[in-house]
């Protein structure tokens, strides 16, 4: 582009120079030709007039001498047009000359001139005729013809001189044109390089053009536009950064669809929901990315009704999710760019919490209603007359007392669990001896164990490290675990309490293993949920509230530890409690 424009400008200058030279040459040669022709005509006319003054007979005799003096061809013609004498031809073979243009003009005006091409010599000839008069009567004509070759020679000499002049003047003129073209093109090249850099995404500094003409004004306009453009780009980048920061920090998943309903972009929230990077779903349709016909139908409904759509969608996968999807069209875009915005809000946890709340209310209601029903029933029976039988009354009152105690334990466990979940339990962590802790809680379950002939075996190494724990809460954890072990172990079974240090980590593990009925492996993940029982009838029969392991789980988490359960159905269960070692 640069060379093409440069040479086009230079070529224009050269063409103008050559055109001027051609026009000057043409006009000059015309003037030279006209001047030379006029000079020859005057010379011939002067010679013809001199010859016409001689007597006619003398003209005929001296025709050859007159031709030499006139440097041309002399022809003597009578009044009738007959050739009387000619310096170069035989008059006997010549035709009448009365109709020749120059002769006709001489007959009318006294002299005549004509120029025509000689077919013999192949050059232009000038013919000048002068009338020979005697008084008013024309006796004949003298015609002198001369070749115009010298006119062409004069023009050729002029052209040769002109060519020499052009040869000396053309190269300096072209050089000056080249210099001027380069000077003229330099600001254009600077503007071109500047705008090219802008087109490639670079924003250079101010454009400086050393010109006070229109190019200088163009440069100033470009600087102004670039300044405005730079400011708009800065604002656009700033807004884009804010938007990207907002989108990336949003918990909700955001998806933008292009006009072809393909995913154009998404944020981290959608990566969390789908458990896959955005790059895997970009360029795909919603159906391909989410595998949800309900979501695709919601999108089509939004496009059809042209209004936002809010719908709850269930997404399958390794961990099924429930999301609230808000679908709407992006406003303010050019016509034809029908982009859509989808915002995904994961409500799976909320739905689980709602279900847990519903289950909790149902379980609490059921757990409270059962002992209350028994208490009310037995009291009504007593009031109806059963008090008269002291043995029956004692038995009924004992049942009422047992159910009241069960209600008391349920309320205590609920209060304990609630305080733990609300972080209202202030733990007083201190180094505790594992052996002392176990020896402290054993008496609390020994009576029950002896009643079922279950020995409680303790296997504690001598140099087991101390643990960091709250004494009362740690004792409560062990009591709950030991109580379950004894409760679900058949008569004459066994319960073993052991402890060991995990050398790879900072854990001290207290393990309670029994030879009881065991737990199905599919039920183990749910142990620790409130009111969850593997065998509801048997657990309720044994007086359980369904909150023991839930309290253990939460108390271990409050200590920074954890609970792990392993079990084989029909062979027994092992509960491992992981405490932090005391430093």
TrEMBL record:
Chief location bin: membrane
Cross-referenced Gene3D superfamilies: 1.10.287.130, 6.10.340.10, Histidine kinase-like ATPase, C-terminal domain, PAS domain
GO cellular component, one term: plasma membrane
Pfam families xref list: HAMP, HATPase_c, HisKA
Record-annotated Histidine kinase domain positions: 363-583
Transmembrane segments: 6-28, 162-180
GO-annotated biological processes: cellular response to phosphate starvation
InterPro entries: BphY/WalK/GraS-like, HAMP_dom, HATPase_C_sf, HATPase_dom, His_kinase_dom, HisK_dim/P_dom, HisK_dim/P_sf, PAS
Superkingdom of the source species: Bacteria
This enzyme's EC code(s): 2.7.13.3
Protein name, UniProt field: histidine kinase
One GO MF term: phosphorelay sensor kinase activity
Recorded catalytic activity of this chain's protein: ATP + protein L-histidine = ADP + protein N-phospho-L-histidine
Domain HAMP: 182-234
PANTHER family: PHOSPHATE REGULON SENSOR PROTEIN PHOR
Subcellular location per the Swiss-Prot or TrEMBL entry: Cell membrane
Swiss-Prot/TrEMBL keywords: ATP-binding, Cell membrane, Kinase, Membrane, Nucleotide-binding, Phosphoprotein, Transferase, Transmembrane, Transmembrane helix, Two-component regulatory system
Listed SUPFAM superfamilies: ATPase domain of HSP90 chaperone/DNA topoisomerase II/histidine kinase, HAMP domain-like, Homodimeric domain of signal transducing histidine kinase, PYP-like sensor domain (PAS domain)
């Amino acid at each position: 582009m640069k060379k093409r424009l440069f040479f086009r400008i230079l070529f224009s200058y050269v063409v103008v120079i050559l055109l001027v030279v051609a026009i000057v040459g043409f006009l000059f040669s015309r003037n030279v030709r006209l001047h030379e022709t006029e000079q020859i005509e005057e010379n011939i006319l002067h010679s013809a007039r001199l010859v016409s003054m001689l007597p006619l007979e003398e003209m005929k005799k001296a025709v050859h001498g007159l031709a030499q003096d006139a440097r041309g061809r002399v022809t003597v013609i009578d009044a009738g047009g007959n050739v009387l004498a000619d310096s170069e031809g035989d008059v006997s073979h010549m035709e009448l000359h009365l109709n020749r243009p120059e002769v006709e003009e001489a007959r009318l005006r006294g002299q005549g001139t004509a120029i025509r091409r000689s077919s013999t010599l192949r050059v232009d000839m000038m013919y000048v005729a002068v009338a020979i008069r005697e008084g008013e009567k024309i006796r004949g004509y003298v015609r002198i013809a001369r070749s115009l070759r010298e006119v062409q020679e004069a023009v050729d000499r002029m052209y040769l001189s002109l060519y020499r002049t052009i040869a000396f003047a053309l190269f300096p003129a072209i050089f000056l044109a080249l210099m001027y073209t380069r000077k003229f093109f330099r600001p254009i090249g600077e503007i071109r390089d500047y705008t090219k850099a802008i087109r490639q995404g670079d924003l250079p500094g101010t454009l400086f053009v050393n010109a006070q003409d229109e190019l200088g004004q163009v440069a100033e306009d470009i600087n102004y536009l670039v300044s405005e453009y730079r400011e708009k780009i800065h604002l656009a980048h700033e807004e884009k950064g804010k938007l990207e920061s907002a989108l990336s920090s949003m918990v909700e998943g955001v998806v933008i669809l292009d006009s072809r309903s393909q995913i154009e972009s998404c944020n981290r929230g959608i990566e969390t929901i789908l458990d896959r990077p955005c790059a895997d779903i970009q360029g795909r349709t919603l159906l391909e990315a989410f595998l949800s016909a309900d979501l695709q139908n919601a999108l089509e409904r939004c496009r059809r009704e042209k209004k936002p759509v809010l719908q709850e969608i269930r997404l399958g996968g390794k961990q099924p999710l429930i999301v609230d999807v808000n679908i709407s069209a992006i406003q303010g875009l050019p016509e034809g760019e029908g982009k859509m915005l989808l915002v995904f809000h994961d409500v799976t946890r909320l739905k689980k919490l709602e279900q847990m709340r519903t289950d909790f209310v149902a379980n609490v209601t059921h757990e409270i209603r059962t002992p209350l029903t028994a208490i009310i029933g037995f009291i009504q029976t007593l009031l109806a007359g059963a008090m008269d039988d002291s043995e029956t009354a004692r038995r009924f009152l004992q049942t009422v007392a047992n159910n009241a105690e069960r209600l008391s334990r349920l309320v205590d466990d609920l209060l304990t669990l609630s305080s733990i979940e609300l972080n209202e339990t202030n733990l007083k962590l201190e180094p505790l001896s594992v052996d002392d802790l176990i020896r402290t809680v054993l008496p609390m379950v020994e009576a029950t164990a002896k009643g079922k002939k279950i020995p409680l075996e303790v296997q504690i190494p001598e140099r087991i490290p101390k643990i960091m724990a709250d004494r009362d809460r740690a004792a409560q954890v062990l009591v709950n675990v030991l109580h379950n072990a004894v409760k679900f172990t058949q008569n004459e079974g066994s319960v073993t309490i052991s402890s060991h240090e995990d050398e790879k980590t900072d854990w001290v593990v207290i393990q309670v293993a029994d030879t009881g009925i065991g737990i199905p492996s599919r039920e183990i993940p749910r142990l620790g949920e409130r009111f969850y029982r593997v065998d509801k009838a048997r657990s309720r029969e044994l007086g359980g509230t369904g909150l023991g392991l839930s309290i253990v789980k939460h108390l271990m988490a409050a200590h920074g530890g954890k609970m792990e359960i392993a079990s084989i159905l029909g062979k027994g269960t092992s509960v491992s409690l992981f405490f932090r070692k005391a430093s």
